[in-house]
Amino acid sequence: MRALEILFNERGKVVLPLLDPDKVIGQPHYYEDVIRKIEPWSTAFLVGGSTGFSQLETETTVKLIKNNTNNKKVIIFPGSPCQVAPSADAILFMSLLNSTNRRYLIDSQVEGAILVRRYGLEAIPTAYIIVGEGGTAGWVGDAKPIPFNKPEILVAYSLAARYMGFKVIYLEAGSGAKNHIPFESISMVRKAVGDDVLIVVGGGIRSPEVAIKMIENGADGIVIGTILEREPERAIEIARSVRK
Ligand code: 1GP
Fold first, then answer.
1. With a 6 A CB cut-off, is 175 part of the ligand 1 pocket?
2. Which CATH class is domain 3-243?
3. Ligand 1 pocket: which of 38, 129, 207, 224 to mutate (most atoms within 8 A of CB)
4. What pTM was computed for the model?
5. What is the pLDDT of residues 6-22, one digit of tens each?
6. How far is CA 111 from the centre of its chain?
7. Count of helices and strands (H, E) across the chain
8. With a 6 A CB cut-off, is 132 part of the ligand 1 pocket?
C-alpha cells in the first residue's frame, strides 16, 4: 500500500515519530531502542531536520528504522534536497508556503525531483505552513510565520493549499516550540478545507491531553520529535492516547 493511502486510512489517529539524522547518528543504539518502543504506536516514521543536511546520514537513519521495525513506511521530511535518501519509501514533497525565499517554495523541489524519480520514492504533495515562533525550520526556511492570533491568515493559506491540490497540510509551530498550534486554529482550518485534505500538526506537542485535543479539533495526525528524543516514555504515552 502507498504511504499516502496508509495516512488516509488512519486519519484521526496518525502518529508520525520524527527522527533527525543529525541527532540519531551520534547515538544509534539509543535510537534503536526508541524506534522499537514507539513502533507499535506509530503510523509511519518521518526522517528529516533543518540542519546538518547529508544524504549519507539520512540514509543511515532510514536504514536504522527499517532494520528495527516491521514494515513501517519511512517518509523523508526534507530540510534540503540532500536529504532525499534512496532507501526511504516516500517523501513529503513540500513547499513552505509562507517562505519569503523561492528556494523553499520551488527551487529545492526542482533540484530534489530528479532524485525522487531516480530512487522511485512516493511523493506526497504537502503544504508546509509555519505558525507562531516557527523554531529552526522557520528561521532556516525564511518564513514569515503566521501569528497565533491571526488564524484567518492560516485559513487563507490552507485554502490556497487545497485549491493548489496539496494532499497534506502540515501545520508547524517549530520543533521544540513553547506553544503548539492553537486548537481553534486547527478547527478553523478543518472547517475551511473540508475532508479532502489531511491535516498534520507538529511542534511543541508534549502531552497526551494536547494531542487528543488536536485530533478532536480536526487534526488527522500529529508529529512528535523533541519529546521522543528527550522523554521516549512520554512520547509513547502521547502516541498511545492518539491510537486508542
Ligand atoms: C518539527 O513538527 C516537528 O518539525 C516536531 O516538533 O520537535 O516539537 O515535537 P517537536
1. yes
2. alpha beta
3. 224
4. 0.98
5. 999 999 999 999 999 99
6. 21
7. 12, 8
8. no
Mean pLDDT of the chain: 97
Residue from 231, 203, 218 nearest 136 by CA:
203
172 in ligand 1 pocket by Cβ < 6 Å? yes
Angle at 223 between CA 73 and CA 232, to 5 degrees: 90
pLDDT band at 192 (very low <50, low <70, confident <90, very high): very high
Residues 6+ apart with CB under 8 A from 173: 130, 131, 132, 133, 134, 135, 179, 180, 181, 201, 202, 203, 204
Contact 97, 128 (CB under 8 A): yes
pLDDT for residue 7 = 98
List the grid coordinates of 207. 502531552
User: Are residues 211 and 42 in contact, defined by beta-carbon separation less than 8 angstroms?
Assistant: no
| Confidence check: pLDDT of 142 > 80 | yes
* Average pLDDT of the segment spanning 30-49: 97
18 in contact with ligand 1, CB cutoff 6 A: yes
The domain segmentation of the chain, as residue ranges, is 3-243
Per-residue buried b or exposed e for 80-117, using 16+ beta carbons within 10 Å of the residue's own CB: bbbbbbebbbbbbbbbbbbbeeeebbeebbeebeebbe
- Nearest Cα residue to atom 1 of ligand 1: 175
- Dist. CA 228 → ligand 1 center (Å): 10
Ligand 1 contacts CB of residue 229 (under 6 A): no
